[in-house]
Here is the input.
Amino acid sequence: MNHPASPSSTGVSRRHFLQSSAVAAVGALIAPSALGIERDWSGQNPVRYPDPDIIALDPRFNKYKLGNTPIRRLHTGSMWSEGPAWNGVGRYLLWSDIPNDRQLRWLDEDAHVSVFRQPSGNSNGNTFDAAGRQISCEHGNRRVVRYEHNGSVTVLADKFEGKPFNAPNDVVQHPDGAIWFTDPGYGSLMNYEGHKGELLLKEAVYRIDAKSGAITKVTDAAYKPNGLCFSPDFKKLYIADTGSSHYPNAPKNILVCDVLDGVRLGAAKEFAPTKMMMKGGEQAGMADGIRADIDGNIWAACGWVGDGYDGVHVFSPEGQRIGLILLPEIASNLCFGGAKRNRLFVTAGQSLYAIYVETQGAA
Here is the structure.
């Protein structure tokens, strides 16, 4: 493979090269490594502002970029990181290291990382409900659980119509207290987690009623529904479909459904495809975890393509890709956190990253 000349030999800075290429034509995107420049993720050699790996593909993204913030790697050493969730009271970021059957915690006060819970049921997605209780999707036990303030565990969902779930994946809460979660089954399809088995239910999205605990299937339109999030007004539900991992004919996209009466979903429609023009042609990756900001933009953790694609893709409320945050690993999930809810935390492969942005996560 031929590599272009380095910025120093052409007189063009790496930042200018990347950003001008991105704005002029998405197909011209070239990752830093392709320029022969390896970023020092230890933080010992800081990048020059503005961070060249935060890229505006459309002028609409400029208002969300901060000129004096870097992408920082906060931790590495996991096998596969997922499910970041911010605890505002404890001022910590919790996430799952699925294969190692543990949950990790990053403290805001001193950046200390420790094991928060082990074993964790090979947990994947996590969130905190309105009462501050942690809710986790457990691959190993095929269930959704809630950790109570006294330390006890409440099983919220482990069966549907008499059959165990496949492997609950991501979870969010609606203002009415209901818990919505996806069940694509990945935890039952992976030997390395030690729980390989068959899928017992059609992959779907479910709702757990806050009062009765009744579980209803709200949609099975996605081949493998993965990450999910509500719009800021809770009138729409977005679902990342990663079905192409196992179904050759499955599209790589993010779906959107209208939320009807707060409890049902309308027909699923494509919100945005996750393919992108890059150097050498169109490439299609998959969106995993997704979150909305207060303006209705959708921030998606994307990967499985490589340099110039893997990282965070930002879509306008109309479904147009307007920005990229490039990472050296496959991005798996993300959440907004920090004291002002303006820090984006991203789990990616073996690591945890964070970036300050000029917006806030939707509540």
